[in-house]
Design a protein that fits this description.
single chain; alpha+beta; Alpha-Beta Plaits; 2 domains; six-stranded mixed sheet; 19% helix; 28% strand; oxidoreductase; TrmE/GcvT-like; SoxG; EC 1.5.3.1
Amino acid sequence: MWTETYQESPLKGLKPVQSPAHAGDARRLRIVERPFLDLAVLRGNARSPGFASALERALGTAPPVAPNTVAHGHRHLLAWMGPDEWWVQSLAASLPSLEGALRPVLQAESACVVDVSSGYTVLQLLGEHAREVLAKGCPLDLHPRVFGAGQCAQSHYFKAGVMLRALDAGGVEVVVRRSFADYAGRMLLDAAQEFMSPNQRIERE
């Protein structure tokens, strides 16, 4: 009987970008996949003291209440998705199950948490041209004055729905559904051709 669990990135089949000979230095743009993070959707009442304190005990931070903001805990972040909804994400792979950690502390609250780790992957665009590449397919104003570190937003990249999180130094994190990951990866590589070195790939952390 097969007993091993095997995980495979949805971007495994992507080929390197076919950049022109005058393509930019790879250090000016990197696309890095962070697969296999622990991801969950959380619903609850942020005005409930018990709900906020339960999350502080479990994750090290209360849920953000300002729209489109992010709060960081010890090993997880919470991103605002609506007045009673948050995206919870581990900061590293192979951490204990988020759902398993949150369910016991939220039992007394009117709340729910659903593990969605297998349904998404996470990409980071790093370097001075990261936002230019995203702007080719995303309608949001991504200028750092408008979309700065500590903020998040839901939008789309061409035809793929995405959640964006602004990083330090101008980078942006992109969360995309697994079923759209190959498409989004191809569109990112196509949009990035002028900034990437020949045969540069999407890296994997």
